[in-house]
Amino acid sequence: MGPESLITKRLDGKVALITGGASGLGECSARLFLKHGAKVLIADIQDELGHSLCKELGNENFSYVHCDVTCESDVENVVNLAVSKYGKLDIMFNNAGLIGDGEVRVTDASTDNFKRVFDINVLGGFLGAKYAAKVMVPAKKGCILFSSSISSKISIGLPHAYKASKHGVVGLTKSLAVELGEHGIRVNCISPHATVTPLFQTTLGLFDKKKGEEMIAVSAVLKGTVLEPEDFAHAALYLASDEAKFINGLTCLSMEGIISAVSHGRWDLQHFLDKPTSPLF
């Protein structure tokens, strides 16, 4: 008997739809959900990565579909596909997100970029919840998850659009939890500190994962360890499982270990490379 067979499958028989599931935190969560017995459909615009992941896993219970979360018909179609393919939808994980162009000065911020970030981070989550609810309300059960950020709780050196959008995600979580709780549907969100994902590395123009971890560790309260995508995935697994059956409206599952701070100016990667003790935030 191998070690995999000894794992209690906490999502056995459940169907999960994860947006932004082709890479980063979404990919990590998708892998873990599958490992714990879920039938998983990942939705993303990164077609090559999505198809590659499906090929790697080679599991009939894992599939990919192209979906732009800012396009209502795309979101409606992917929810309908999950139901037609697997017969139901138990978990809707609105994980797709965008940091934006990295500009932190409001005077230099792009209005188009601001709208784009809100469209993906807030509107995309709203649409995911809307169409998932259409399936879950008649079933009188379900779980809707959102990815927020520690920046929804403290002001750190991130663009205004990103921080404001993550506050919006928290507000949406609270509002939906009240409405949908009456139908037996739980709505929660996770607010992680920075993790070295492809999104993080692309935003900072960073190619060295270890260097990214050092940047994050400088501002962390909890020393001696670094938040990994797998840690985020385990938090999502818990909230999606029946172990969290009475947890609804949670907006403060924060994975932070970070000093509350206010930072001004743009991220300066070269400054960090020259002075590796400089805090990220």
TrEMBL record:
Keyword Oxidoreductase: yes
One Pfam family cited in the UniProt record for this chain: adh_short_C2
Molecular function GO terms recorded: oxidoreductase activity
Protein keywords: Oxidoreductase
Signal peptide location: none
UniProt cross-references to PANTHER family, sorted A to Z: 3-OXOACYL-(ACYL-CARRIER-PROTEIN) REDUCTASE (AFU_ORTHOLOGUE AFUA_6G11210), MOMILACTONE A SYNTHASE-LIKE
UniProt record similarity statement: Belongs to the short-chain dehydrogenases/reductases (SDR) family.
Name of the protein this chain belongs to: Uncharacterized protein
Native species: Gossypium darwinii (Darwin's cotton)
